[in-house]
Design goal:
Two copies of one chain form a homodimer. Chain A is an alpha/beta fold. The first copy, chain A, is built from 13 helices and twelve strands. In chain A, 53% of the residues lie in helices and 15% in strands. Chain A has a six-stranded parallel β-sheet with strand order 3-2-1-4-5-6, sandwiched between helices. A three-stranded mixed β-sheet of chain A has the order 7-8-9, with helices on one face. A three-stranded antiparallel β-sheet of chain A has the order 10-12-11.
């Protein structure tokens, strides 16, 4: 199996390292965080400096997985260009178009395929992760020119217990604005407004407030990095949300009926539940660039790789 | 123990009936829903017509608990006025000032004390409830002129495993706009926007979207009844949320830093967690109107009633 080098051992990087090692992949890591490094070492993992890790990756032709926070990506890419310029490279960052640009700028010879496992908790750091965090998750693996590295990354996703979801960088960024960054903004607003009048309203908080504010417990700098880093895709989605919320405000202010929003919200929630409960059609075919493009357009999820054959499930 | 008559056997009414019966309170009910009635009867509960139940409540001097949806409150109050005009009366509706007005209009001689147990799920109907749903919940019991009935209702809350929280109707309505109705509106907007671009974005939905949209699974007519019924308190809270979301939009559009919102959201979430983990000071004193007013101002939660003595916990 191709070795794995994980740079950044926080929640996601730490979980990838543990899951890959548990699956038998020779895996090692690096992190700028002393706390994460010693926690990982105490569990028996090899943790080097970033430069050492990249040198080892070059020697062993490892897949390098960047799992550092967005603001640190440029610096690590420059280290990649210096120590392992033609490395097989992926990442787990929550935006894809800007990381692809950063790779083109700072490590133009790397064989880069963007990735993003769709998991997360309000917690962060090595100790918040686990070998099972990625289990059952959809892991976006952007189609690119390099089919061989696409296969490496998809194989890593599958070995970690996830499923590989081919999706273009731009489409991914628009989608996560909708289903990940907007939820973080709304959770922050809800938590801020809910707590703005002292402890009395909070005494009445039950499930709706607790669930709706959970991700506001995320470290503010992580929320900022995600949302600011995807501002271009997030602003139009936020405008749609503002429009609907304004309409609801006018409806309520004129003591009119809130039917439109209540029904649309309910339909949206049901669509999510249908998608999750659906089994979908299964498709087995050759792994080609065209296959990935087709799967990306239809929302197909890769559940198996076998030689040059790919098995995917399509949404109902 | 004073008997209990529950009118409306959906999620909340059904849970109150079961919890009260489990605590040894002689309890019976009524519902306009054939499905809820036969489900309750099949579990051995006495279910009458509304008129029969109210007649029995009058004969046995029971506490009558209205647990019907808001749009049905007026009609049931007229039935109370006809069959048990001076009944001890409470309710579990999600708004308090308008129910108080409705009681003054339709059943002016009833000894009414407003109530609202802060629980709920996206499910509804008898089958969604349980004897334990109310366990550990804060149950708002509005202070009023009738200390004896206040005690009846607080005792019911405690017997159901909840804690009684004295809070004025207006204060309650403003608080639930903040921590219950706003979350429902935001969940609806999030679910609607998330599902507006087909299944592909939903393939990327993980914890933040799932938690943030959970209550959008509530029956739309229940969401409407809550929000429309509390429009007066909800509009200003919604305006605050819109203001913060607009500010975030401008910040993102000008590629500025989202620090204010991210920090405020995180602080709000921490305030909720602190309140929940805090043990607070305990206070034991005589149950008087002044005691309830004082507890209502400080957010005290009644955990025990013993003769004319009340024990409460104050927030930290």
């Amino acid at each position: 199996m191709r070795p794995l080098c994980v740079i950044g051992l926080g929640l996601i990087g730490g979980s990838v390292l543990r899951a890959a090692a548990a699956a038998g992949i020779p895996a090692f890591g690096a992190t700028a965080s002393q706390a994460d490094a010693s926690a990982a070492r105490s569990e028996g993992f090899q943790v080097h400096s970033v430069t050492e890790a990249l040198h080892e990756a070059r020697t062993r032709d490892a897949l390098v997985c960047l799992a550092v926070p967005l603001p640190a990506v440029d610096e690590v890419l420059r280290a990649v260009a210096a120590a392992a310029p033609v490395a097989r490279l992926t990442d787990v960052a929550s935006v894809k178009a800007s990381v692809r640009s950063a790779v083109a700028r700072h490590a133009p010879h790397a064989r880069y395929i963007g990735g993003h496992p769709m998991v997360g908790t309000a917690e962060s750091g090595w100790r918040a992760g686990s070998a099972t965090l990625l289990g059952g998750a959809n892991w976006v693996v952007c189609p690119g020119d390099d089919l061989e590295v696409w296969r490496d990354v998809a194989e890593l996703a599958l070995q970690c217990g996830a499923r590989a979801l081919p999706m273009d960088a731009e489409r991914h960024d628009a989608a996560v604005a909708r289903v990940s960054h907007l939820p973080h903004l709304l959770a922050a607003v809800l938590a801020a407004v809910g707590a703005a009048d002292g402890p009395l309203p909070l005494q009445l908080a039950a499930g709706s407030f607790n669930d709706g504010t959970r991700v506001a417990g995320t470290r503010p700098e992580l929320v900022r990095a995600m949302c600011e880093g995807n501002a271009e895709a997030l602003v139009p989605v936020l405008d749609t949300a503002l429009e609907q919320l304004h309409a609801a405000r006018e409806t309520l202010a004129s003591r009119d009926e809130l039917e439109t929003l209540a029904e649309a919200g309910h339909r949206g929630r049901r669509a999510l539940q249908r998608l999750r409960s659906g089994h979908g059609a299964e498709l087995t075919t050759e792994l080609t660039a065209a296959t990935l493009t087709g799967l990306a357009q239809r929302g197909g999820v890769v559940t198996r790789l076998d030689g040059d054959t790919v098995t995917a499930r399509l949404p109902d």
